[in-house]
Amino acid sequence: MAHTDSNLHVVLGSGPAGTALATELARRGHPVRLVDRTATGAAIAGVDRMKGDVSTHEGAAAALRGAGVVYHCVNVAYHLQLDVVPRIQRAVLGAVEEAGARLVVLDTLYPYGTTHGDAMTEDTPWRATSLKGRMRAELDENYLAAHREGRVSVVLGRSADFVGPGVMNSTLGAAVFPGALTGDEVLTLGDIDLPHSYTDIRAVAAGLATLGESPRGDGRVWHLPTAPALTTREVLGMIEARVGRPLKVVTLDEPRPFGPFDQVFMDAYAEMFYQHTEPQIMLSGAFEAAFGATPIAMADTLDDTLGWYRSLLAHRA
């Protein structure tokens, strides 16, 4: 495969992961372009924002023109994923191949499907039965096939559920921290006495940036650095200790609309609810050993996330 010698890092998608990644890449001294559909987000030092639609080949090609490394962090509304995410993959893969760039993909745990509580490593079989899980597994096979065939250098970084400053649309996000700080209800899902891995969004960014800098990791899946799994109840207890009050916990034992999760979202999420009725334990030891990385401790994650939400609530007041 032909490789460009460009040092431009192009991040596709400006959600929490894309924004944190662009910030991290700029901090590491790379020239960075951050692409989304509006280019209206807050300015980030050292990052050029660009408006683009990467669901079409023309849009993707324009977005990553001149790129040396491309990071696919585009997220799509849950109920649209089955239709839109494969279309984005086709456009991005084709454009990356034409540009001769490397491709770093932010990925999920969905391809593994139910694990009956077994810890997930990069060697865990892909046994997804959900529509979105099977779709993600098929996309990942396409990425790895493109690498094997010599068309594109690709590496995938998998994350557990996000948590951290800037993360809102997560089970440990806007449904939890505002209520913890104000004394309002805190929403949890499924069995909160099961261990559940959460990956700090800053570790996601640092891990993807490292994969972007390190071609020796190409051609495979990596689990991004993630702190040891705790039960959701243990995490809530850590939050209680930090806010100095008991939390008013509401637990949904089945998917239904509540708080930030509306009917459209919950209908689309229902098939993934197994993630809250069996342990979700993701191990990242392979990445940590290969790249000398250390996960961010949950205590530090909660301190910083509560600080971010305090600032958010103060600005809204």
Automatic annotation (TrEMBL):
Alphabetical list of Gene3D superfamilies matching this protein: NAD(P)-binding Rossmann-like Domain (3.40.50.720)
SUPFAM superfamilies found in the cross-reference section: NAD(P)-binding Rossmann-fold domains (SSF51735)
NAD-dependent epimerase/dehydratase domain segment(s): 13-216
InterPro entries given in the database record: Epimerase_deHydtase, NAD(P)-bd_dom_sf
UniProt cross-references to Pfam families, sorted A to Z: Epimerase
UniProt name for this protein: NAD-dependent epimerase/dehydratase domain-containing protein
Organism: Streptomyces hundungensis
